[in-house]
Amino acid sequence: MAHPSQLGFQDAASPLMEELLHFHDHALMIVFLISTMVLYIIVAMVTAKFTDKLVLDSQEIEIIWTLLPAIILILIALPSLRILYLMDEINDPHLTIKALGHQWYWSYEYTDYEDLGFDSYMIPTQDLTPGQFRLLEADHRMVIPVESPIRVLISAEDVLHSWAIPALGVKVDAVPGRLNQTTFIVNRPGVFYGQCSEICGANHSFMPIVVEAVPLEHFENWTSLMIEDA
Amino acid sequence: MSLPKPVMRGMLAKRLRFHLPIAFALAFGAAVMFKYTVTEPRKRAYAEFYKQYDSVKEFNAMREAGIFESVRPSGE
């Protein structure tokens, strides 16, 4: 989850999010390069004592300020497209979960296992126990096995929502009448938080997503218990 | 006593010859500084983290701390 006075992204917990972090560093480096140059030129222009009133054109500078941005754009586009295609790589998910957005909660269906589904409501602030996070905790977490490719099918039952978990680099719109798919792998065990990312009404800010990644044997124990309780 | 002839032309070119290399150098320097103070340390930090990472040990520590809801601490 986010921590106080955080400036950058949350620590990555999936390989894709790591790639996105490094790409962002690359793009930001280019932003600093351009900004430094523009700032220096602005200061040089503002402090100039004379103005050349007779400069009408200059082929050389036109060539430079066409070619240089084109090269910079290519340097940004190549890693960006690499990650884009990486996201679409064929992988063989071990598990498929449906995440459905409602006003104002998420519901998860593990249809690989017969009859495992539950709703996930935010825990109200007054019901939090010490150590829990305000506006982020949910009564039932989406539990998944760690280091396994997971497919999540996302849709909505009423209005637009969006299923997002920053630490995993996932954000997918939940559109009523449409099934969107995303796949991810969680590198390490832990609890990862997200919040609904598409305005959906009064309680849009109060329908968080909590994903719990645990080793496979514990995941299977959990599914057995959940099926028994159902 | 005549005054020295003032510079009459080429002032913009002279200014550009002075300032543009500095602008490029500063910009490139800022990029290199960012690369070696942010980008490379972050890549190294992630590589080091996963080199020594023992997910079973970390999982058990988190479990005993009571973080998970699907898996309670071993005492419970």
Mean pLDDT of chain A: 94
Say which CATH homologous superfamily of the largest domain in chain A is assigned: Cupredoxins -  blue copper proteins
Percent of residues of chain A in helical segments? 25-40%
Strand segment count of chain B: 0
Overall pLDDT score of chain B: 93
The total of helices of chain A stands at 3
Largest sheet, strands/sense/barrel of chain B = none
Beta-strand level of the residues of chain A, as a percent range? 25-35%
Subunit organisation of the chains = heterodimer
Tally of separate helices of chain B: 2
Tally of structural domains of chain A: 2
Termini of chain A, distance in Å?
30 Å
Shape of chain A: elongated
Class from secondary-structure proportions of chain B: mainly alpha
Greatest contact pair? A-B, 37 and 32 residues
Would you give an account of this structure?
- Chain A is of the alpha+beta class.
- Chain A folds into two domains: 15-88, Helix Hairpins, CATH 1.10.287.90; 95-229, Sandwich (Immunoglobulin-like).
- Chain A is 33% helix and 26% strand.
- Chain A has three helices and ten strands, in the order ααββββββββββα.
- Chain A has helices at residues 15-46, 59-87, 216-229, and strands at 95-102, 105-110, 116-120, 142-145, 149-156, 161-165, 170-174, 180-185, 190-195, 208-214.
- In chain A, the strands form three sheets. In chain A, strands 3-2-1-5-8 form a five-stranded mixed sheet. In chain A, strands 4-10-9 form a three-stranded mixed sheet, with helices on one face. In chain A, strands 6-7 form a two-stranded antiparallel ribbon.
- In chain A, a hairpin with a 4-residue loop joins strand 6 and strand 7.
- In chain A, helix 1 (15-46) packs antiparallel against helix 2.
- The two termini of chain A are 30 Å apart.
- The mean pLDDT of chain A is 94.
- Chain B has two helices and no strands.
- Chain B has helices at 11-51, 55-64.
- With 76 residues, chain B is an all-alpha fold.
- The longest helix of chain B is centred in the middle third of the chain and has 41 residues, at 11-51.
- The chains are: A alpha+beta (230), B mainly alpha (76).
